[in-house]
Write the structure tokens for this entry.
Amino acid sequence: MMRRRKFISKSLSAAAVAGTCAGLVSCDTEKQQEVNTPNINFNKTYRWKMVTTWPPNFPVLDEGCKLLAKWVEEMSGGRMKIHVYGGGELIPALECFDAVSNGAVEMGHGVAYYWAGKVPAAQFFGAVPFGMNANQSNSWVLAGEGGKLWEEIYEPFDILPITCGNTGIQMGGWFNRDINSLEDIKGLKMRIPGLGGKVFNKAGGTAVLVSGSEIYTNLERGVIDATEWIGPYHDYKMGFYQVAKNYYYPGWHEPGATLELLINKSKLLELPLDLQQIIKTAAYQLNDWMGAEFDAKNAIYLKKLIDEEGVLLKQFPSDVLSALKRYTDETIEELTDRDATSKKVYESYSKFRDSVSVWSNISDRAYYDSLT
Ligand code: CA
């Protein structure tokens, strides 16, 4: 009787794991392993370190990473404990990738475009100006070729990436002057990172790299004339409305920044299979939680900015957006011409976008249009 129960339990565990694996990031590594859950050593506690690119205690982002640690600890019955360090607490914020790669820490959380200097193709897994929105990016990574390509480009660094949160469409940014035409961008100094920054330079502006903690002072002192950050919730917390009143939309440069969980692959494979799956499951739960949190909070704080702080909400003129779109195509062409991996990733990205757009146009877009 006892043996039969053990057999059933083992079969159920195997089925459960196989089921969990389906539809997630490629599971080749798991397939090669024995399902070892019946051999769990309940007395062994695993302690991991996680670093992030986010300021300590930053809402949604740092907050979400700490939630992930809590979920993993709860799901594992306390066998797995992850200590989360905000940017600068253990290592500088932008050294997360290296720290996970060399195994100094087991996990990290950030955005793939931060690693553009090391892996140019990573930018397509962060945010692409005029690119796919959050849902479409999720679909490319989880149900298209995106996830497999992402794993491929991080493989040499012994890192497994998992899509883990999305900001949704960001805001265009804070400007201390009106943007009525492309002429108004000329000579403008703006804090705007990634591919969007390169596009801004082509449009005659000057993209400046300023870390999050220095943006407010630089804007206040006129070192920069404009800045983008995220959306109403986080922008409110940064207080930008006190030093610039024009709040432009849409965030053409980041139409859905995908956030990523970085895991040292060797360290992950050393874990019992159930803990590996618990980490992945928590990551997908965080992916949903962050998206929902951004949407809910942005709506509340946009109203606060307008009603309580007198912020002037303005839309970029369509000819400015058309010009920025043209410069985006040029920027991406230059990148894919000089980097073969970027070319390969972008071919998959644009093929998926073209295909999914046909569907989005008659579903999402047609539905929104019907409401007006
Ligand atoms: Ca941004």
The first strand starts at residue 46 and ends at 52.
